[in-house]
Amino acid sequence: MNKLSRWLSGLFGNQQPSSSSTTQEIANTAPLTEQQLQSIVANQNPRFDLQQLISAGGQSVGKQRDLNEDSLLAMTTTMAGNSGNLPFGLYIIADGMGGHQFGEVASNAAIRTVAGYVLRKFHPYLFHVKTDTMDESFQEIMQAAVTDAQRAIQREAPGSGTTLTAALVVGQQITIAHVGDSRAYFIYPDGRLEPITRDHSLVKRLEELGHITPDEAANYPHRNVLYRALGQGEILDPDIFTIGFPQPGYLMICSDGLWGVVAEQDLIKAIIESPNLQRACQNLVSAANTAGGPDNISVVLVQLIG
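The structure corresponding to this sequence follows.
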């Protein structure tokens, strides 16, 4: 049994209320003064005594496309147990391809299938007090979810495909499932940007092999050609791994309509200089559209606070 499974068991295990918990406590309350209210509003770095996830998302069809083939899911909640709450989140971006409406169908099918599979596995822990542990690891759950999505796309939109970058956040751990060239990044308050996924594209492979330089890759004529995509081929080999959530820092998932258009330093600036995550997402989408908006744009930002 892994450490997190034992933690889940402890979180949802049966506990008898202590004698002190049965004692009614009388809380003394009073209206806040104007000075107290102003102090709260003016505080730029509020402290949180409990860990919690906050998230935001943004999308645009772009300036040069008639149809949005990106799909996005952002779900943020907590698993409440007898001994505390555990942050829980599921964040997915899929960038469909195939022309006409097939790309939209493929990305929608990917989002629905992966999210549905994962949430069915976690449903007993989200909505009931479970005392037993999961039989599967989080990586096994994500692998099975992606396999289900592969079959769903081949059934609902044969010949099409989609990228998929999904992040399952449980506590301080992120489990990533990734196929294609949408990306996940960590962004740090000191201005560092760290890609945590690897593009499954022809241009990235040529760069890794040393056949082209990073500068040549940025202007390569076949940048959008993928050698691995959800819905394509009989055998799918997604990248699946678990990594700690950056604290302090942000998780960003986005389609190539953002990272392929906006320079890294501008991505960082739009995030760390924004007053909140929703405004940061709006700024990122606006930046991509201002740069020409050649593709659909999707972005999710997540922060673990407390």
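The chain has one domain: 49-193+226-305.
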